[in-house]
């Protein structure tokens, strides 16, 4: 089992990061929010979870241990595999996920691609007593800090993917009206990328 990976970031794509460890490039599948924090050439440490299949070994990389723990826990719900677990964390932060499950917010869960009403209800039923309450890590930031954070993360994500700073700034501005009170960095990064691809 590989618990974490530490090394210089060799490459960042839309869905993966490559970290160089001992002369070997390890490819990790990550959420847009995690990828937005990575810079090519900088050393990063990402907690990881390895998924072994008959025909593949896949490493998933995470922002922190909390995100990794949620990823592994949600897979204990029937019908939730690693790809769906990652999609859940791309749309909802660990605390938002705990809140959605704890308050039986089916609507929040169905925002995740691949989760319909029945699957959402099953996830709530199976995980309600296991995910625990929200840790409150996201609610301590004020609105100004939160706004600054999502802007920085989306901008860094775009420049990390090779877009020039000025174009990245324009893309961030173009999706600002979609941010709302609790910005979803992953969704905003995807929207900004769509804006750039149309330009």
Quick take:
This protein has helices at about 30-35, 65-75, 80-90, 95-100, 105-110, 115-125, 145-160, 165-175, 185-199, and strands at about 5-10, 15-20, 25-30, 45-55, 55-60.
Class from helix and strand fractions: alpha+beta
Shape: globular
- Averaging pLDDT over every residue, what do you get? 85
Strand content: 15-25%
Radius of gyration: 17 Å
- Structural domains: how many: 3
- The CATH architecture of the largest domain can be given as Orthogonal Bundle
InterPro entries: DNA_helicase_Holl-junc_RuvA_I (IPR013849), Hlx-hairpin-Hlx_DNA-bd_motif (IPR003583), NA-bd_OB-fold (IPR012340), RuvA (IPR000085), RuvA_2-like (IPR010994), RuvA_C (IPR011114), RuvA_C_sf (IPR036267)
Domain Helix-hairpin-helix DNA-binding motif class: 72-91, 107-126
Keywords: Cytoplasm, DNA damage, DNA recombination, DNA repair, DNA-binding
Family: Belongs to the RuvA family.
